[in-house]
What does this fold into?
Amino acid sequence: MRAALMFEAGDVRIEEVPDPRIEQPTDAVVRILRSCICGSDLWPYGSLPHTDTGRRMGHEALGVVEDIGSEVATVRRGDVVIVPFVWSDGTCEFCREGLQTSCRHGGSWGGTHFNGLQAEAARVPQADGTLVSVPVAEDSALLPSLLSLSDVFSTGHHCAVTAGVGPATTVTVIGDGAVGLSAVLAAKRLGAERIILMGRHTARTDLGVEFGATDVVAERGEEGVAKVRELTGGDGTHTVLECVGLENAIETAFGVVRDGGTVSRVGAPQYAVVPMDFRVFLRNITLTGGVAPARAYLPELLPDILEGRIEPGRVFDRTVDLVGVPAGYRAMADRDALKVLIRP
It folds into this structure.
């Protein structure tokens, strides 16, 4: 079959790789219907050292179960399933606590040692604890939004939940990428009173307004902090959802959060030290966030998509086939595309 491999920064190729097969009785083989390129894929796209073997890419997918191991009980051949961005057994203490990202028998997609999901098919370990069947056809118009539950919308939701967003909460979202826009939609869904979106790409912030942002701040740095403070009577917002992962973004987050408030970060951090100095300490600021346990959120979020209350799949603004994946990476790196959908 064909799959996307990254050989070094800027070098993504579509190569023939071995077909996936059942290796453990808890495995399933899934034919990929939809996958996508994640913003976090752009970090290695800009910096990966050369590798002769290539690195399998992709960690978000929606597909059809083609085969199952002898111990798989919760999915059947022919089921359309969401494939979250980590696999998990669903039975260890971390999974039972809703932290599947720390599953004792789980793992992550891609890399040199395991298959990625930007491909025609994949072997899914721990199928019972990982896959979620959805009652839709293979050509359903809901596929993009269902795919978003595998990572991007679940990540935005995780950011809002860990920050404590709810009714009467004021929110600042930092970043107008797909995760930031998902965080806007998640905050709106959770009842936020006011949502300030910090971003400067008009097409993206316009979608953010449609998702629920009440204000848009295009300024950055100290000017951006001053603008948010101005909009909030000098206080800042109760919560800040940091969806970028750069040091200047976390510095901005501490600048716009209200005293006693919470900053949640889900942007993959590209810095080693959090600038949480004595001034931040004196303001009683809470820092939280982390990797989203998407599998834990699926039962809650899935009905809203199936019943049409939210449409997070609108963050996909370009569709390619597998051959078009390298061009999709370039488009996202050049900011010509917000998030690229892949139809193998």
